[in-house]
Amino acid sequence: MSETTTYKVIGTRPIRHDGLDKVTGRAIYGADVQLPGLVHGRILRSPYAHARIRGIDVSRALALPGVLAVATSDDFPDPGDRIAELGEGAINVKHLSSNCLARGKVLYHGHAVAAVAATSPHIAEEALKLIRVEYEPLPGVVDVLAAMQPGAPLLHDDLRTDELGKKADQPSNVAKHIQFKLGDPEAGFRQAAVVIEREFRTATVHQGYIEPHNATAQWNADGSVTIWCSTQGAFTVRAQVGELLRLPVSRIKVVPMEIGGGFGGKIRVYLEPVAVVLSRKAGRPVKIVMSRADVFQGTGPTPGSYIRVKMGADATGRLTAAQAYLAYEAGAFPGSPVGPGAMCIFACYDIPNVLIDGYDVVVNKPATSAYRAPGATNAAFAAETVVDEICERLGIDPLDFRLKNGAKEGTRRADGPVCPRIGMIETVEAAKRHPHYHTPLTGPNRGRGVASGFWFNCGLKSSATASINADGTVNLVEGSTDIGGTRTSVAMQLAEALGIRAEDVRPVVGDTESVGYTDVTGGSRVTFATGWAAYEAAQDLKRQLIDRAARIWQTTPDDVSYTDGVLQRRSRPEQRFTFKELAAKLHETGGTIVGRASVDPAGCGGAYATHIVDVEVDPETGKVTILRYTAVQDVGRAIHPSYVEGQIQGGTVQGIGWGLTEEYLYNDKGEMLNASFLDYRLPTSLDLPMIEPVMVEVPNPGHPYGVRGVGEVPIVPPPAALANAIYRAVGVRLRQLPMTPGRIVAALAAKSG
Asked: Are 485 and 502 members of one domain?
């Protein structure tokens, strides 16, 4: 494989295999599941942000006609205090259990307390009103810095800070302190001609998926369980439910339905174990579908954060040192993405001296979940804004500065890894060549900003099975939930390896009993890792096809070649089969052929992006109008360019929302005030120009086809790029997200006053 390698399937734009079902409405999503005898579940949620549960009386609810079961945390086995690997990293099972149904205390407004199953959703809702919960309200804390102060209300009496690997003596809201260090930061700052230190705040933000969480569970008479749900990982659901309910995974079957968005927010279980418990008690299948308010109040958003960044550069514009302090809100239970944030904050640059401290802090908000490059957008907002200020101070073009300092092959990150072949510099060069960067921006209150971003991607485990049909088509079963067209991108890699058309592959996402173990759809891993599994399954098919052709020709496998879907005898070239011709003979020569593979690949390769944005700011109202946006990204090898472009555009739009409009709003009681899409302000097509994606292909040497994950890094640069553009438009630097009209007007007033 090289940067000039040509392919027949990869790089083309076939119609996605699931497209017809999606546009005609035939696709089955989680809420569409209907089973004989199905009943409906609903969840009772806490009105308090922090309170002790003194008692729960469910007797009146159980007496309501039509109610078949009520569940509380007492119906869950004692989780103990143990750590388990259940998806995107290790998690405390006690915390996961308490998040599904509260144990002892509620820790955020909307925390699930009890659940009912009834013959209609209306009866279930009425039953919730009959449950009596005795609460002892407690002081709460919803701000990360306030939670870190001595004397702050404690969420967990047994939580002690893991201080660089050692447990603290006293309980605290700080769950963990991590640190990365490279070189001698103090010496690096002494070498600098310019040193800039700034503080930044980012708000709690939701992933914005359209389909709410849902789960249908059936407890079977033999003690086995079947779950239908909207999830980013069927095997992850199986593992979590197994741990929480003390069931062997062999007794749990998870059927992933079509998913209406996730972006990291549909990995942790919320409803699935509750539905299982209700089904066991009711003796009927139970379906629970969240309302939109439930989604906002009761599931995991991305964390709010406080970040302090200090960076220094010499007179030539060479970065000499960088330091960062990151405090991320974990929500009610430990586990914020402060680790990834710390890994990514300076990863776009080759800096010899770096010190990074990260803090994972619990607050009275929903437990945070992943959101597209989790932790990296917060971090980039801070670092890229400081970089822009350094460029201004030194009089250096921001892209020239990145060309001078950008990470490249051989650069060591502060957290340890040395960069392989990467495309950071290439994205900057492409941005600098783009007409957008050279087009004059005329008119008052207009500005242009740039920013870069990084996400490390991941590999993890994937499986695939492929079987050849007599008509020369191939059935492909893989285990990765398809959120962004990955069925097709995986099928295309199988087709490329076999030398057949993408349209001749029939891909399906299997349940946990139909395909081998496969990790979550997350971390930008599916096209990379599941695609690799499909590639290896194709190699298995090719070996068997060669054996079958050798048997027909009465020769040895070494005498048979396989090239571009054609098998040919080396010693007698006139003897040849196309893929379809040999497929038609399989039943006559030993039966069908099945290829299979399970992989756990390393070498996933990091992804880099550089964005350019033009804005116009109304100084009277603070409204920001985006005039033009160009997103340049190293995509490794674009398997299906249309899907890659869509990922870049979608991630960019989410980053714009994060930068300008989106935030969870809380009152002084810790109650969320905007738990609906009416009040939580997502950007729409009316707020946006066409996002122009520019794909730079620097093939990843760690993949057979050069694939890099593409789905996460586009969300990273937008807030910083917008902040830099706003500064050039009206002369004020915004260091708090979102950069709402009110904050812009306040900054302008402070500047003039």
From this structure: yes
State which residues form the domain around 381: 305-457+605-752
Q: For 373-456, where are the alpha helices, taking DSSP H only?
A: 376-394, 398-405, 424-433, 435-438
pLDDT in tens, 102-161: 999 999 999 999 999 999 999 999 999 999 999 999 999 999 999 999 999 999 999 999
Question: pLDDT tens-digit profile of 515-550?
Answer: 999 999 999 999 999 999 999 999 999 999 999 999
Pairing of strands 505-509, 83-85: unpaired
Q: Write down the pLDDT at residue 3.
A: 64
Q: Is the pLDDT of residue 4 over 90?
A: no
Rounded to the nearest 5°, which phi and psi values hold at 560?
A: -120, 130
* Inside any domain, residue 592: yes
Specify the DSSP class assigned to residue 529: I
In terms of Cα–Cα distance, which of 415, 373, 400, 434 is closest to 607? 373
Q: Known catalytic residue: 712? A: yes
Residue at 635 is within a domain: yes
Instruction: Give this prediction's pTM.
Output: 0.97
Question: Packing angle between helix 718-730 and helix 741-752, nearest 10 degrees?
Answer: 40
Q: Is the dihedral of CA 114, 119, 120, 126 positive or negative?
A: negative
**Residue reference for tokens 């006139």:** 574
Cα(400)–Cα(408) distance, rounded to whole angstroms?
15
| Residue at 236: amino acid letter | T
Residue of 324, 306, 309 whose CA lies nearest to 363: 306
Each residue's pLDDT tens digit, 166-187: 999 999 999 999 999 999 999 9
CB count, 10 Å around CB of 460?
A: 21
Q: Angle at the Cα of 228 (from 233 to 516), degrees rounded to 5? A: 45
| Residue of 165 and 451 predicted with greater confidence | 451
Please choose, from the candidates 262, 333, 300, 638, the residue with its C-alpha nearest in 3D space to the C-alpha of residue 483: 262
CB of 287 closer than 8 Å to CB of 38: yes
Adjacent-strand bridge partners of 506: 475
Q: Are residues 466 and 446 in the same domain?
A: no
Residue in 243, 616, 692, 712 annotated catalytic:
712
Residues 6+ apart with CB under 8 A from 155: 50, 105, 107, 141, 173, 332, 362, 363, 364
Locate 223 and state its tokens.
């003690």
pLDDT tens-digit profile of 596-653?
999 999 999 999 999 999 999 999 999 999 999 999 999 999 999 999 999 999 999 9
Please give the helix or strand (H or E) that residue 568 lies within, else none.
strand 566-569
Q: Are residues 429 and 449 in the same domain?
A: yes
Assess whether 281 and 310 both reside in one domain. no
Phi first, then psi: what are they for 197, rounded to 5°? -130, 130
Backbone dihedral region for residue 261 (phi beyond 0: left; psi -120 to 50: alpha; all else: beta): left
- Specify burial of residue 628 (Cβ count, 10 A radius: 0-12, 13-18, 19+): middle
Coil/strand/helix, residue 218: strand
CA pair distance 81, 79, nearest whole angstrom: 6
DSSP letters spanning 620-633: TT--EEEEEEEEEE
